[in-house]
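Customer escalation, tier 2.

The customer says the design service returned an amino acid string that "doesn't look like it belongs to this structure." They asked us to rerun it and document both sides in this ticket. The original structure tokens are below, unchanged.
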């Protein structure tokens, strides 16, 4: 029996199957969705506004990606992952 890899959301801290989360990476000083699974250090996140907001507020991206000075654009991530620019 094969089980799906389990990852932890940097926003809420909840554990979920890898398929339920989105991988993000640092691209310079920005945080972007890693659609190509490029390898290297990444962080996992639920595609939900509360998780995005909490990760930004807690400065979790910099710690998880081990990059100093990373500036995640919460609004851009929210639009890309949820299709909605509002916090809802």
């Amino acid at each position: 029996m094969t089980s799906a890899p389990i990852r932890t959301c940097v926003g809420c801290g909840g554990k979920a199957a890898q398929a339920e989360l989105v991988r993000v990476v640092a691209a310079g000083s920005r945080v972007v969705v890693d659609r190509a699974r490029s390898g290297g250090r990444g962080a996992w996140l639920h595609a939900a506004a509360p998780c995005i907001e909490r990760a930004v507020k807690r400065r979790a991206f910099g710690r998880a990606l081990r990059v100093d000075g990373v500036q995640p654009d919460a609004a851009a991530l929210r639009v890309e992952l949820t299709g909605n620019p509002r916090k809802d």
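Tier 2 assessment: The sequence is consistent with the input. Strands lie at 6-8, 15-17, 22-27, 30-33, 43-45. The first strand starts at residue 6 and ends at 8. Sent an explanation to the customer and offered a walkthrough call.
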